[in-house]
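Hi support team,

I submitted a single chain yesterday and got back a structure, but I'm not sure I'm reading the token output correctly. Could someone confirm the output below corresponds to the sequence I sent? I've pasted both exactly as they appear in my results page.

Thanks,
R.
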Amino acid sequence: MEKQSRDSNSRDISRLDKSLLPSASEAPIRSPVQLPVSHEIAPKGSREHVARPQSAKASHSRRPSTPTTPHKEENPSKSRSKRKWDKDFSEADYQHKTKKSKNERAKSVGKCLHVSQESHKQKSSEISCKKDGNRRSNKELKIKFSKSKKNLDTKKKDLDAGIFKKEYNKKLDSLNKFGKNFYCTQTKPRQGLRPIYIDGSNIAFNHGQNERFSVKGLQMCIDYFRSRGHPVKAFVPHFRLRKGESTDPELLQKMVQQNLVVTTPTLYIQNQRRSPYDDWYIVQSAAANGGIIVSSDGFQDILKMNPNLRTVVEECRLVPTFVDDMLIFPVDPHGNRQNTLDQFLKF
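Hi R., thanks for writing in. Yes, this is the structure output for that exact sequence:
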């Protein structure tokens, strides 16, 4: 069977038209492959030197270059010695190069260290200069700040002085209505308990039943308001400190030293004793500081001279009553059964 199939295939091929097959003239002629010849490298100018062909196709071809004829060494002993010499030379050259590279590296490192030290010195000098400059600038700023602060302080003082002058002028304008015979730099704050201004002569004579100046009655009145926490001032003519002018001049002198009693002036003209009207001191000081007048006097003569003091005399006056050695104040000072004594003695 296999033979029959082979015969049939051969018959079919023979039957094919010979015109379809390519002729001998039309078939491409392939040139023999020119392989690069590899020779051992020899110095130029010698007979053994053969130039290698440098073709573009050979450089791009992936096939390795295979020599057509094997290389034959003429003197194997010479080539071996040459190889040994090349090895020794390469090792010595490598060691020399490594030593040279090490020296170069050391030199470069030394240069780098020197440069880094110099740069560090420069940076440290720059930093020190900056610090000195900063210190100088800080000192200059402190001086400028102190100068500006002084200027601000002077400006504030000027402003405060101006404000104080304005406020004081306002106070003077308000106080001028009470009289132009006094000068007040500071007024007491109007908070809490009111200050007490006592008509000393009136209280002392009330306790002495209008016969003698009783220092004991004046002391009782002062102690009462001090026990309540009020600031107290009692006004007494200066001549009451003499002997025979009061029941106890020594006790009166002690109260003067304690700043509880204020003495009004006493004049002697042509052997005659003259004392200014002490009620003015009491009423004007109470009007200036919003205080309470303790007296049984109505001060009508003062109201005739200055009607602006009417509110102080009528609304801020507290009348005491002595029963033997007992001092009593009204529970409702205005007599309207509404305001109590505690309310009356507060702002």
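A quick pointer for reading it: The longest helix spans residues 76-176. Let us know if anything else looks off.

Best,
Support desk
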